[in-house]
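seq as requested:
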Amino acid sequence: MALLGSGNRSRTSGKANLVLFLEVLVRTRGVLYVHSVMPAVTPHVEWAVASVIGEAVRLDWLPQPALPSLLYAEATWLGESGTAGRLVSNLRGWPIRFEATEDRSATNDGERFAFTPSLGLFHAMTAANGDVVVPENRLRQVLESGTDVATAIGRLLGEPWDRELESFRQAGDGAPVRWLHQVG
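struct tokens:
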């Protein structure tokens, strides 16, 4: 949301200046990777994604070679900033493994989310090239915590999630990609 002043600073009657708030839609894009899901859950995943995107969604589900009884899909989306976070909020309650990314925009940093049922949710900000960015205060917490620094920094970088998801990522190479466009 952009904050724009009224531009009239010459009022001397003691009244507050009027301020006009304008909401500016900032568009960005990202990718949703559903690495593993039971076939019975796929309609629920599509409904969860559709509620964020604002239109019906049909993903191209393929057998997950790493676990043949499960399926995987990939969708590239175009929408307003914060879409990846809303997707994650809708999906994290389901028994699935997934990742969501959001490219940086003019007003927001990029983001990366990863979720596995065993590890829960990972979230990090990302640089323009996709590298995870760790804020200074989180590094200070690691140094002050007395825990193993290498292990703690590895968690901040998402290494446990990367280890668990890597076999699913490799199995999904070459998956068809579907474009989703947010309406409204």
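The longest strand covers residues 27-37.
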